[in-house]
Known about the structure:
heterodimer; A: about 500 residues; mainly alpha; 2 domains; two-stranded antiparallel sheet; two-stranded parallel sheet; 21 helices; elongated; B: about 325 residues; alpha/beta; Rossmann fold; nine-stranded mixed β-sheet; two-stranded antiparallel ribbon; 8 helices
Amino acid sequence: MKIRTARRISQVFFFSLFTFFVAVTDLRYLDGYPVSLFLELDPLVAFATAITTHSIYKGLLWSLLLIIPTILLGRVFCNWICPYGILHHFIGWVFGKGRASDQARIESNRYRSIYQIKYVILVAMIAAAVCGSLQIGLLDPICLFYRSMSTAILPVINLAAPSSVYVRQSFHAGAWAIGFLLFLLVGMNVFIPRFFCRVLCPLGAFLGALAPAALWRIERNPTKCVDCDLCLKNCEGASDPHTQLRKSECFVCFNCIEDCPEDALSFKFMPPLQHEVTAPAVPARRAFLGVLLGGAFFGFGRASGDSDRNYNKKVIRPPGSVEEKEFLDRCIKCDQCIRVCPTNVLQPAIFAAGIEGIWTPVLNMKVGYCELNCTLCGQVCPTGAIQRITIEEKTGVGAFSAQGPVRLGTAFYDHGRCLPWSMETPCVVCEEVCPVSPKAIFSREVTITKRDGTPITLRQPYVDPALCIGCGICERECPVTDEAAIRVTAIGETRSRDRRLLLDGGAGRS
Amino acid sequence: MKNSNPPEPDPQISRREFLLRAGAAGALIAGSSLGGLALWQRRHFVPGFQEKGGLRLPSFSLPPDKLLPEMAIAHGVDHEKVVRAAIGALGGMGRFIGKGDIVVIKPNVAFDRPPALAATTHPDALRAVARMVLEAGAAKVLVADNPINSPAGCYLKSGLLAVADELHLDLLYPETNSFAPIQMDGEILRNWAFFDAPFKRATKVIGLAPCKDHNLCHASMTMKNWYGLLGGRRNQFHQHIHSIVSDFALMMKPTLVVLDGMNVLMKNGPTGGRLSDVKPMGTVVAGTDMVAVDSYGYTHLLERDITELTYIRKASNRGLGNMDWKQTRHKEVQA
């Protein structure tokens, strides 16, 4: 078997595995599949969260599996495993320069200085992480691809074929922006092959920084080489195999070796380094600019106060989420929680959580509510931004009854919009659906004289803050659907000492 | 620019080419005119006030039997045995289900709750009824509900998914295309989105409801169970809840209803949430008159005063059933 065939089999396998995981990230099919495996394999996720949290959360240790082949062989991940890279490779083949002349293809695969941008991006993201803001997920290909699938692609598939993906159609705030970004990045392959991988990918840059240690490399025999440049024709990484190989750029796709008519290229154990450009070609001053950029991002973000005193009442985090600043240390915006959420309540934040919190999960009770007996979001979270809590820990029963339930916020009535409070109309759907026992919503029967003089007996609802867990089903089911008469805000959330509402946490009153 | 070639005379077009080109232009003009006329909306309408049509649901009930009881009450310990005793006392499932029937069983799986909390139809009750239906020769059993909580979680955690897998029942999810408008002459319910998919080929319908407290309408039993066949803005129903629940008795004429009172959610309904909300009553009521069955459930299982249950009175006054269950032909048995 030719090595190119082996690589194609690997690409089909890993791309299929990725789409399979995306497809089964649903309560109906979950069955214990390691659906976040690609994120756990991603060494940039493990490395960056290790910087922000000084720990490696649960399955992130799997990333060692990927670091080892990189140190031995170079960036094999990029062209053998990475599902997003495979997507770009495929789209470039279909819409790109696949049918252009040999000369045009050779020219499109020469190294360009813009390919160093990814290293500046990586440096900026690491600098931000050192300060305490995890931003790798904005461009990390695995996070980006999971996010695009969950919030843009799957909902569109379900629109085209109703109930093929979800029982009820899912919606995601700002899906259009995530969808168009995917379109734009993938579309760039028409102009520059593997544009994202070569120019932007911070994971590629991270692996490229490890690649100089690789023991096996492409080696050119200059006495056999006739300088025909045909090795560039299918070079995925634009790594200059026709001259001094840029090992940090090489995707180890092996196309150059197979395309060489003179057999001048080979994959060798420890070839002499003098024949290569061994390190990423990024000038120190540019790298320093990256440090400034990352630091400024953190500084400007924190100076806005969104994660502190000026926090947004609508930033209601999933059950098991860590305190907000630590959340920004951990969340990689992969949106796996959003994919698995059975009620669609989890939404990618746009600017609600500040610039640092773009695409992190927040609950929108207009769309869904937090299911009481459900902790799926924490089960799929690869970084522990949402801890893997149990149902018992979430609901505060059994051994956890002393600490009480996890609260996401507190519900408040807006009497002016409430039918029994101000419109002489019976309702209390909110009380009906309140899932805790005893119900946090209770009602008092009152008999009032209507405008026309006739009496009416109806029930007026109240919230018991000691019992309310902020699940938001009251808001979701309220018939005043444009802006509910009962709304949950973040105050009272148990994850933060500073944002609690009752002095005794409600424990003494139930 | 220099023009080196002398102008050539234009060639004459052929008759054939003239006809083809003129014909194509004419066809385009005619086509766009006809298309425009065909799609022309001449009259305006007032958005939101258009005439609506909908399907009329057929009756699934059987002609009344002159000898067999209309209602049976069975007491006992073993869930399946009590269900069998109740239906047996009515004359057995063979009275209702024949060979080749396609049977819809409507459980109440409104909430994502484990069975022990008695907020949903118990899996043992579904197993018992579905087995009897299959034993009676039914060709197919469909189980369908439109829960308030997310459907996948409700089916899974209520334990009904496992029973459906075990007995090869068709569990239907309320999908986007599962609904069609229904048309009826209720007090309030007139035109509403209905979970139509299971009823397209159904020949018999069995309602299988738990007996529960309800915060607004006092109780959720076999009549209230049909709420789960509706879609749309159900959260408006609460503004006229008693009229709506009695309309359900007009909407659905089932073959049989079964009220599961083995464990009754006495308070904090309809969701429950604690075992202390649940009381073991060891009773199953089956019958053809859901008003009678529910009135027994309200007085004897929830142990409350029937005069406060407005929807039962409304349904009885409208001739949709008999709220004085003692007047009906009934039988009480021990399993």
